[in-house]
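>> Question from a student workshop board

For tomorrow's exercise we were told to take the sequence and the ligand below, predict the bound structure, and bring the output to class. My setup keeps failing. Could a helper post the expected result so I can at least see what it should look like? The ligand is S-adenosylmethionine.
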Amino acid sequence: MSQIDSLPPLRDVIDSHGIAAKKSLGQNFLLDLNLTSKIARLAGDLSACDILEIGPGPGGLTRGLLAEGARKVLAIEKDSRCMAALDEIAQIYPGRLQVINGDALEINPLQYLTPPIRIAANLPYNVGTELLVRWLTPKEWPPFWSSLTLMFQKEVAERIVAQPGSKAYGRLAILAQWRCDARIALQLPPEAFSPPPKVHSAVVHLTALPEPRFPADAKKLEQLVARAFNQRRKMLRAALKGVAPDIEDRLIASGIKPTDRAETVSLEQFCTLTRNLSAG
Ligand code: SAM
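>> Workshop helper replied:
Here is what the output should look like for this input. Compare the format with yours to find the bug.
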């Protein structure tokens, strides 16, 4: 294994700072610094960017991001046991790592960051999905970030990149793909983590598009898609009953058969239907 910095191996850092993994915080740490550097490279050119990292833990990905040349990393970590380890990293990269001890769901990081901003994280499943949905549904587009490089359990990663006609296709795919290019950049087996989780994981890389792929009002599209997939086994004429008195006609006018199910409707068709419904 090649050295990426002058700090001790992550296993020693975890031992010396007493950061035994806690289940309650979803702690499955990456210990291979070559792997964390590889994930950092997946985030793209970091040298001209500020990076927001959520959940740095003992700092494996943080070290990868800094070794790969990130201009600045702002790391938000809930577990105060990690602060001393993160401080050691800050000392060998003067002025480039700022750490906040707090809950990423409650902190607005914008005041600490200068664009362009990329986001990178290996987060617990629940927090990761909630933050992803927030990042994908900002008040204005383009958002404050230019790319997201995020570790998820494989099943969630597949939902983000899913295409119509597959079981994984749903609200998350539409939210992600409407205004981003989304792809699975790396798959990881449980053994890549300590302790190993029960499931496989994958890194998803999303790049914000300057404009949505197809025009539609964001709130209306989100509501329509949530409703359509809420009863994904039902035909759309039933699932969307009550959305408009003439919903069958509107489906047909949008190129959708009223007997189709949500999981076969393309992103473009959902946008067309949203515009049709907005037209009154
Ligand atoms: N990034 C490290 C790595 O790759 O080894 C740690 C990953 S571990 C899966 C998730 C990290 O997120 C833990 O360090 C955990 O304490 C932190 N975390 C969990 N919930 C959080 C929250 N709401 N806000 C900030 N950090 C959180």
